[in-house]
Every structure is written in C-alpha cells, then in structure tokens.
Design goal:
4-stranded antiparallel β-sheet, 3 helices, alpha+beta, Jelly Rolls, single chain, elongated, 219 residues, 8 strands, transmembrane
Length: 219
C-alpha cells in the first residue's frame, strides 16, 4: 500500500502542464501564441483542423529570444504545411535548449475564402522528469530510480491517451456538423422538389383546361 501511494505521488509529480485552445483562423490571416519557457523543458505540441477546406494549415514554431532581449530576426525551429490525410492529429515535440520566448503560429494566408476551425494544445514538463539543477550531460537512466521510471512512463501514456481522446472528440464533432449540414441540405432539397412538383401539376392542369377550352371553340 505504501509503494502504491509513492507511485501515485510520483505520477502526480510528473504530470505536465497542459494548455488547450480552440479558435477560428480567418482566410488570409495568421494567428500566433507566445509563451515563456525555461531551459530544458520538453514541449509537446498537438493540433487538429476540424473544419474548413482541405483541413490544412501551415504550422510554425520559432524562438524569439530571451524575454528581456527579443531577437529582431526570430529563429524558426519547425515549419510544416499540415494536411489531415492520415486521420491523425498533427504533432511536434521539441526541447527548449534556451530559456526565452517561444511562439507557435498557425498560418491560413494560403486560403482565399475558407476559414479554418482549429484546436491545439501543448504540454510542458522537464526534459527528463528531473529537477532543473540536474546536469543536461548526465545520463538520465543513471538518475531515475525504477519507481520514477515507471511513473514517467505512466505519465507519457496518459499524455498519449489524452491527445487521442481529444482527437476522437474533435472527429465526433466534425461528424455531427457534417450530419447536420447534410440534414439541412436534404430538407431544403425536399422542399424544392415539392414546390417543383406542385408547379408542374398546376401547369399541367392549366394546360389541359386551356386545351379543352380551345377545342370547344373550334367545334
């Protein structure tokens, strides 16, 4: 029982900070979010486009420099044009080698008319699940105890599970939107079909009545 309690405390200690956001990116625009990270932080970024066009977006991660002395020319760490063709959320993991401001940008400037609805989150924890004072060159396998290794492995599995749960929720919402849109289209198509049938019926009755009236005059 004591070991189970210690393992639970270790898991809670290794649970990272999670920041989750949702937004709509208008066409010909770009949305950026900045945050200040300490050195040796492992950041796991996940995103998904739930609505809009080909479900594509250009993702850029850059380092803007120290918070007190930002760079005039930020350094791009990652850039990719994302398409959700593999039915999987976009993902990028990186380690902050320097402390400072990091910016995440979602670019929709390539779209002329279509806005994109996007959800993203990023998780932050220490590089090895260790205190900040630990040396980066030291082998983490020599520092972590077996229970700490188990706790970190459980924490990583929980992260993956959380990301996939969010992805499945987003897919469910997209399917609901598609179903509602299809139902609305079917409804208006049925109304249009009914109006067309009534118009054709009245036109046929009018034509037949007119035909017989003209026939009587000829007789």
């Amino acid at each position: 029982m004591k070991h189970l309690a210690l393992l639970l405390l270790c898991v809670l200690a290794f649970v990272p900070l999670v920041y989750s956001f949702g937004m709509q990116i208008e066409p010909k625009t770009k949305e950026c979010f900045s945050d200040t990270f300490e050195k040796h932080r492992q950041v796991k970024l996940n995103w998904q486009v739930s609505r809009g066009g080909l479900l594509d977006v250009n993702v850029v991660v850059r380092y803007d420099g120290p918070s007190d002395r930002p760079f005039t020319d930020p350094q791009n760490i990652y850039e990719k044009l994302y398409f959700e063709k593999d039915h999987a959320p976009g993902q990028y993991d990186f380690v902050t080698k320097k402390a400072g401001v990091y910016t995440i940008c979602f670019d929709n400037t390539m779209s002329r008319f279509t806005a994109k609805v996007l959800q993203f989150n990023y998780l932050i924890h220490n590089k090895w699940g260790l205190p900040e004072a630990d040396d980066d060159d030291q082998d983490p396998s020599e520092l972590l105890q077996p229970m700490e290794k188990s706790a970190r492995r459980i924490s990583e599995e929980l992260e993956v599970l959380s990301v996939h749960q969010q992805y499945m929720r987003n897919r469910e919402m997209r399917h609901i939107w598609t179903q509602r849109s299809t139902n609305v289209r079917i409804f208006w198509l049925s109304v249009l079909e009914s109006v067309a049938l009534l118009a054709i019926s009245f036109a046929q009755v009018y034509y037949i009545k007119r035909f017989f009236k003209q026939g009587r005059r000829l007789i």
